[in-house]
Amino acid sequence: MPPIRPRTDLETHEVQNQPSAREGGDLWQDDVILRHYASRMGADQGDLASFGRLMGHEDLREAGRVANRITPELQVFDRAGRRIDEVTFHPAYHDLMQAGLEAGYAARPWEDKTGGHTTHAAMVYMMAGVEPGVSCPMTMTYAAVPSLKANAAIAADWTPRLMSRRYDPASRPVWEKSGATLGMAMTEKQGGSDVRANSTVATPDGATGGDEYRLRGHKWFCSAPMCDGFLTLAQAAGGLTCFLVPRWTPDGERNGIQVMRLKDKLGNRANASSEIEYHDAFAWRLGDEGKGVKTIVEMVHHTRLDTAMAPAGLMRAALAEAHWWVKGRSAFQRRLIDQPLMQSVLADMVVELEAATALGLRVAKAYDADSEPDRAFARISVALAKFIANKRCPNFIYEAMECLGGVGYVEESPMPLLYREAPLNSIWEGSGNVICLDILRTLAREPLAGEVLFAELDAATGADRQFDLALKDFKTRWPSIPPEAEARWYTERLAVLLQGATLLQHAPDAIAQAFVATRVAGDRGDVIGSASYADSRVILGRLKV
Ligand SMILES: Cc1cc2nc3c(=O)[nH]c(=O)nc-3n(C[C@H](O)[C@H](O)[C@H](O)COP(=O)(O)OP(=O)(O)OC[C@H]3O[C@@H](n4cnc5c(N)ncnc54)[C@H](O)[C@@H]3O)c2cc1C
User: Fold this and answer.
1) Ligand 1 centre and the CA of 304: distance in Å?
2) Are 460 and 538 part of one and the same domain?
3) How does pLDDT run across 312-326, given as a tens digit for each residue?
4) Mean pLDDT, to the nearest integer, of 424-442?
5) Is the dihedral of CA 293, 298, 301, 304 positive or negative?
6) Pocket around ligand 1: residues whose beta carbon is below 6 Å from it?
7) 488 and 354 in one domain?
8) FRET partner for 540 with CA separation of 20 to 30 A, picked from 70, 159, 467, 531?
9) Domain boundary residue among 113, 131, 162?
């Protein structure tokens, strides 16, 4: 659509000093920071260049806005009163799903090419700024692949469809479809973090002793209930077990999955998060009875990568908007971007964004590597990256919103969408405390994870005295794993040190030094912008297109 050309000269006044709306652009080419770290971490720059062009196009950006405004609807019955449990979406939602899946958002990491997870993580980052809700089913489709391996026959049947790069939204048995999506249903009313409290019951279907079961119970959160199947946990005779529940049974009937209602959420509005019940729903067992957590944790490990990367994408989108605005707006006879205090605010945000992006992609690189130390590093570092980026994200977006003044608080600006999304990635796939306790557990149970993590930190020493001192202080303060009550403090410090180490090894000097001075050595106040950047212009140069 050609841009609307508004009339500026109105009867009572002339509209002045209001920057035009930021139109579509190229999310890859225009993002110096993303390109810098993605290339250093071995992502596929060709794939990302195409993805950035596609997702930055004004048509898809508009699709994101529409999919958020015109939200999904649940249709429980058809007009004759028969149950259908279908969710309908605006076509804009389908456009985004199709664009993302065809570009390889879910498939790319599992294809026989290098840099898959890093490329995927950069796609997550770009998608987050366009429409974060559609990322949910695409992320779950990506992440489910390794868990399916626990049942070779199911993996052989389903994985090619998950990797097909085709979006087929039809509600039909999966064998009639060219592409499929998968969701996840773990959380129950009585406990989400503590999945061992799950009450859904699984009973073998027939006396064959095979992998077919019937499930009875509920799930309190099931995002994307229009997926073709759901990885779920239920109590079998041998304990908590992982299952794949297809939407259609092998004999071509609607499975006994009833969608009770869609959640009315703070944000993430394009995504149909639902409450469901299993009414003797047909399911295939994945892995042995009693090994449910071990099986589904493979999926959780991969969704966590996306929850660590998405906040960086949200921050980037908010900062790009703020930057655009302050370049075009003046106050007190000077452009906002030329005012020293506004420069400090933006520079401080650039430094934060660099840290989140660099660490997220560094973690993704470990997913791409295949050695046992890399796998151990991925397990611990993804939790650290998820914790720190998500704790920073809401406040960051609020500050970016404030750069726009009043207009940032208005729904026509992209800021409310980003702000509502900001807390989500911290809550799911391990809320803050759970992540911190997970880190302590990993360090206690997997000595290799601690070894590779501290080796990464040690490798960054020698470049900045403040970093070296801070790392020494950390080791003195916590010579061993701390008590639970200190887990947040410990995690925050460790995550900041890891961000510092990553920047010292991969960022331009000005960025690494600024991060170490302000975050690692703590030469700053608590709020964004309460820092002194001698070379804020150099730092702001990272926002230049
Ligand atoms: C938009 C959205 C979409 C979602 N989609 C899905 C989905 O598709 N599938 C799915 O299965 N789930 C989904 N969830 C659910 C989500 O994963 C859970 O809400 C989350 O795991 C937390 O579980 P809970 O809500 O039961 O909170 P609880 O487990 O009750 O936790 C409440 C608080 O207590 C803290 N806590 C827990 N244990 C401890 C402890 N030992 N010490 C200290 N603090 C602790 C937690 O960190 C948290 O802050 C979704 C959630 C949201 C918001």
Assistant:
1) 13
2) yes
3) 999 999 999 999 999
4) 97
5) negative
6) 183-187, 191-194, 221-223, 265, 268, 273, 424, 427-428, 431-434, 437
7) yes
8) 467
9) 162
